[in-house]
Write a structure and sequence with these properties.
With 153 residues, the chain is of the alpha+beta class. It has a single domain (6-149), classed as Aminopeptidase (3-Layer(aba) Sandwich). 29% of the residues lie in helices and 33% in strands. A seven-stranded mixed sheet has the order 1-2-3-4-5-7-6, with helices on both faces. The longest helix has 15 residues, at 87-101. The protein is globular and about 40 Å long. The termini are far apart. The mean pLDDT is 95. It binds coenzyme A. The site of coenzyme A (COA) has 19 residues, from β4, α3 and α4.
């Protein structure tokens, strides 16, 4: 769907249920709405959405890790109709710029080893596969743990 009127902004409390709707439509084993709310309340400065004509069409929600200044991307999705036009890249760029300004040193994420599209996107942003996490998902599939060290080009 062609539309150049996209707004990227920080997520707000009233966005939780709409972010959950995008999550639900995007993953076979989605996070629940309560969990999305908890992720948001824990680190609102690490949660972002993409809006088109007042509707949330994509998001990236992040959180802290046990180690200070290490961020964790917990979920990222763009609604199917809006994929393949650079929005995933834009929200990831927005997130990485934000955590760079906040002084984060690295960011990690987990991705299904079969999700080649997402892996390619992360590799373009210099995320490197760190390790494989066996049976990470509910259906028994494995994930890669990918890590990006900030200030690395
Ligand atoms: C992953 C996701 C967020 C990407 O969003 P998007 O808006 O489609 O991504 P973009 O249009 O910005 O594309 C960015 C890059 O992704 C990769 N990509 C996008 N579409 C692709 C396709 N059909 N085939 C292969 N790679 C693709 C490419 O590297 C692309 O860069 P390029 O356009 O220079 O080739 C989106 O596909 C999605 O929501 N998927 C379902 C949820 C999901 O899997 N999330 C990731 C969980 S770890």
């Amino acid at each position: 769907m062609e539309n150049t009127n996209y707004l990227l902004r920080h997520m707000m409390e009233e966005d939780i249920s709409k972010v959950y709707e995008v999550e639900r439509k995007s993953f076979p084993f989605p996070f629940g709405e309560v969990l999305i709310g908890n992720i948001f309340y824990a680190a609102p400065e690490l949660c972002f959405i993409i809006e088109s004509e007042g509707n949330i069409i994509g998001f990236l929600i992040g959180g802290y890790t046990a180690i200070p200044k290490r961020a964790h991307i917990l979920s990222i999705a763009v609604l199917e109709d809006f994929r393949g036009q650079g929005l995933g890249r834009r929200i990831l760029t927005y997130f990485l710029n934000s955590i760079g300004k906040l002084g984060y040193l690295s960011v990690k994420l987990e991705v299904n080893i079969d999700n080649h599209k997402a892996i390619k996107l992360y590799e373009e942003f210099n995320f490197k596969i760190d390790s494989k996490i066996r049976k990470y998902y509910q259906d028994g599939t494995d994930a890669y743990l990918m890590i990006r060290v900030e200030n690395e080009k």
